Amino acid sequence: MSNKKTFLLPDLGEGLPDATIVEWFVKEGDTIRLDAPLVSMETAKAVVEVPSPVSGKVLKLAGGPGDIIATGAMLAEFEIDPSLPQRAEGQDTGHHHHASPATQNAASPGGKGAGADAPGNGDNVIASDEGGVIQESGQTRSERADSGTVVGAMQTSDAVHREQAVSVGGVKAMPAVRALARKLGVDIARVRPSGADGVVTMEDVKRAAAEGSAKPEPRAAGAAARVAAAPMPAAAPAAARSTLSQAGKPMRTRPPGESVSGQPEQLKGVRRNMARVMADAHAKVVPTTLVDDADLHAWIGKQDITARLVRAIVAACKAVPALNAWFDGDKLTRTLHPHVDLGIAVDTDDGLFVPALRNADMLDARGIREGINRLRAQVEDRSIPPGELTGYTISLSNFGMFAGRYATPVVVPPCVAIVGAGRLCHDVVAVMGGIEVHRRLPISLTFDHRACTGGEAARFLKALIDDLALPQ
């Protein structure tokens, strides 16, 4: 039996076909022990730490930070050290990957061929936060059913991830904290930790970024001196863009070509999943949009607009249950829900998340606000449980917080409707005997016309607007 083992990227509990390398905790030639941190990987939901499945020498690593590795493709190659602890044969730790042989041999989209070296001998991987294991043959594994989404539908796992702060280079921090530090240009080794046992937290990194107290150090002085000593070519003056030639005569222009239009950027993590989900929704849903304005002129005092929107959606769901439903286009079946789990779109720099505000129909204004604040905070620091991103019955996009009056938001199956709230505005309204200026909130309702009629959608929109028009 060969002492050389190839570790394939396992299913990290997300059901996604790939993940992005965030940071390697080892380098080629290092010796690593069983279950020690090997690499942190970013999926559409979280930054997950992958432990070493064996004890031994690291022979090869697939790609570098930012490269995308397909599930089932080679992640690392080891030379097993029999003198160090190894996992018992056949021990199952819970995570499986469902890659086909073709997927296992697929090259990395990052351009480094990370999956090209995946073995074709049928090696399969089972791994979890408690450690990985390599098995020698092809066991049959059942696939999980599709049940939810970051921005739509995505598979889930019953495995539980327990991330712990890992000491790398003398710094203790969670993988997500290290990812944030790289994103903000912060040298995590120079951040003052405030967590228990000297752990660097999200707030520590954000504070250091705001203060500018932990910027990466420049290169070594020797390298800097060599660079300084090298003759520098004179900088050419930037040519001003103009529709006139150098002779001052008008000239024809054309769109910029590839050479001046920037480099393609590989979508990763949340944005990568968002692209898949949106394309799938566009192919499966028959969308129709109705728009109208809710008149808020009768409101008494200052009120929480988002909480009122949630309350109004709940009222509309009770009046017309057809839009608080799921639809199966293959089986042509419809499921009406007696409760309202409202998916609330949250925009981030990494992409769009849609966490679920559970049992919105049982919450008062204070409960709604507390629930929304909790979900937004969890999305921001990427600590939101995967279960909170699945299973909503209808959704809300409050895009008017930024700009825009009306929209055609995307309905993501199995849901059949999404409500869009535009920018609050002051409109001139005709009233008996003259005109008045009223505060009005533009509302857009997009629904899957396969699952409900235009009349049902119109009655739903009216019930929503009528509730928003109430004084309080």
Automatic annotation (TrEMBL):
- Please verify whether the record's keywords include Transferase: yes
Picking any one GO molecular function of the record gives: acetyltransferase activity
The UniProt keyword set, sorted, is: Acyltransferase, Lipoyl, Pyruvate, Transferase
Tell me the ranges covered by the Lipoyl-binding domain, including all copies.
Answer: 4-79
Residue ranges of domain Peripheral subunit-binding (PSBD) in the record: 172-209
Which SUPFAM superfamilies does this chain map to?
A: CoA-dependent acyltransferases, Peripheral subunit-binding domain of 2-oxo acid dehydrogenase complex, Single hybrid motif
Query: Could you tell me which Pfam families the record lists for this protein?
Result: 2-oxoacid_dh, Biotin_lipoyl, E3_binding
User: Per the entry, which co-factors are needed?
Assistant: (R)-lipoate
Residue intervals passing through the bilayer: none
**GO cellular component annotations, sorted alphabetically?**
cytoplasm
Region (Disordered) residue ranges read 85-128, 236-266
Subunit details for this protein? Forms a 24-polypeptide structural core with octahedral symmetry.
The family assignment reads: Belongs to the 2-oxoacid dehydrogenase family.
The protein here is known as: Dihydrolipoamide acetyltransferase component of pyruvate dehydrogenase complex
Q: Which organism is it from?
A: Vulcaniibacterium thermophilum
